[in-house]
Amino acid sequence: MALESRESTNTRGGSLAHMARGIGRAAVGAIALLGLTAALGAQGADKAKVAEAVKADLTKLVDLERSWFEKNRTFTTDLRALGFAPTSGANVTMAYASARSWAANATHAQLQPTTCFIVVSQPGGVSNDRPFCSESTGGAVAATPQQGAAAPARVATQAPVKTAQAKPVAPPPTSTRRPVRRPAAPSVPTTVVELPARAPSSNAALMSTRAAGGVVDAAVTEAVTPSQFTERLNAIVASALDVSNAKMPDVARDPYESTTEYQARVAQAYAAFQRRETEFYARNTRTYVVSIPVKGAKYDADREVVEFTVDPIGLPTARSFSSTEGARLSVACYTRPYFWCSPESGMQYDGTDLWRIPRATARSADVLNAPLTLMARFVVGRRDDARSPAVSLVSMELQAKGAAISRWDSTAR
Q1: How far apart are CA 32 and CA 131, in angstroms?
Q2: What is the mean pLDDT of each run of 10 residues along the chain (413 residues)?
Q3: Which of 92, 120, 241, 342 lies most in the core, judged by the most C-beta atoms within 10 Å?
């Protein structure tokens, strides 16, 4: 009986020791798990702080772009010109910038593979969109523009939308039925795409050209060819120079009138003289629809973009013999970025990547063989921000076989 009691005691002691060792291992595992959880939590908190700092940099970029737009009536991709320097240590890249929209993305070593974005597509640089961060998989997703806003020139990297994983579906049985034909795509696109053009190499063109828009169609509209448009501009400029260079006639004083009466007559004469210029531009301000033949059309089926060239449009110049400047531009051009003006080369078209035409529409219109015409609407007259006659680009329409296939409108900014 004593031996049995001793054996039973040893058995119970071994079980207790084994249980104690198991509890110890579990405690060590729990402590390690808590430490790992705390480390991951700290790492997540640091990553969140970095993300907020990167988004703060993009918010600062919004303010700088807004200020730039107010001065230049367009956005810019030049971060140095904006005076922008990220404080978060992020690598900020401008995806694109045009007269109506811009976008940028930012990457940071501590946020990989997350990328932060900002897309501004409302006029004046004021946007309801805020910077956001998303995991990037290397794909390119175009930001959807708001109604009335232009689509961007390039697309920013953005994470694809996650969808529920679909169950595998067995292949359909072989059928002898003919495939159903889908309706053809419409011949006229419903969206207008504005992408930034190249800046001219001529400093004179940069100095002589301002942002398009700022006016609406005049009451009188006239359809002209490029040569007729140049003739109309020359006639308006010549008459405007005569009006602006005219001297106010002298007002002779009647010896029988008082000083007050004489001053009142001088004021009336001055007001009448000032009205001459206003009345001149009221008579001569009109909209010209210029039909410009297109040359060298090329179609990029991958980008769905048609590019072409047109001949420059002549501009009137005035000779200044009292200075060494030579010929100077005697009209103010508000046609940037698609027409650049200079005294030497006139009004030159530069609409790189402007016209995005769906492949079905391009094939239907036969853009490579059919005659293409660029219908440009210009308002010629006086502007409050220009002393000389001004040429303002209002809209453009690309036509094939006499039908419109795409349109650009400055008032949609």
Answers
A1: 37
A2: 47 54 60 58 74 89 85 80 90 74 82 79 53 58 36 37 43 46 43 59 82 89 96 91 79 89 87 85 92 94 93 84 61 92 90 89 93 96 84 95 91 67
A3: 120
